[in-house]
């Protein structure tokens, strides 16, 4: 798929915890894994050992749809990370599966000036070592 997206030469990688490891490795199977409570069905992020809604510890990662919309964003224009050239968009993506549940990521494959609140996006993954970073690109009709 010729999207025009070029991965940065360097990306700061997370140090996954036992709870967050599925989120950072689900991309190997093309899955955006978000924690979900098996008692009340509530999705939540970041991952935690208990549901903050019903307090159940019967929680675990489940594949989400991978779709969402931009809830808020900023355009970074400073060269903070060598090899990670600005400008780039850092956004809060509200997942379609549960309003209010948001993932912080980058929106790519679109001019930064065209990103807007409400923009529909879909996930894809960029592999770095043993981590699959979830990124988002606009959904085309």
Please supply descriptive tags for the structure shown above.
141 residues, mainly beta, 4% helix
Provide structural commentary.
- Helix content is 4%, strand content 38%.
- It is globular.
- It has one domain (21-138).
- It is mostly beta strands and 141 residues long.
- The model has no long low-confidence stretch (mean pLDDT 93).
- The longest helix is centred in the N-terminal third of the chain and has 5 residues, at 21-25.
- Strands 6-5-4-7-8 form a five-stranded antiparallel sheet. It has a three-stranded antiparallel sheet with strand order 2-1-3.
List the topology elements:
Elements (H helix, E strand, L loop, with lengths): L20 H5 L7 E5 L5 E2 L14 E5 L3 E10 L11 E8 L6 E6 L12 E9 L2 E8 L3
Antiparallel strand pairs: 1-2, 1-3, 4-5, 4-7, 5-6, 7-8
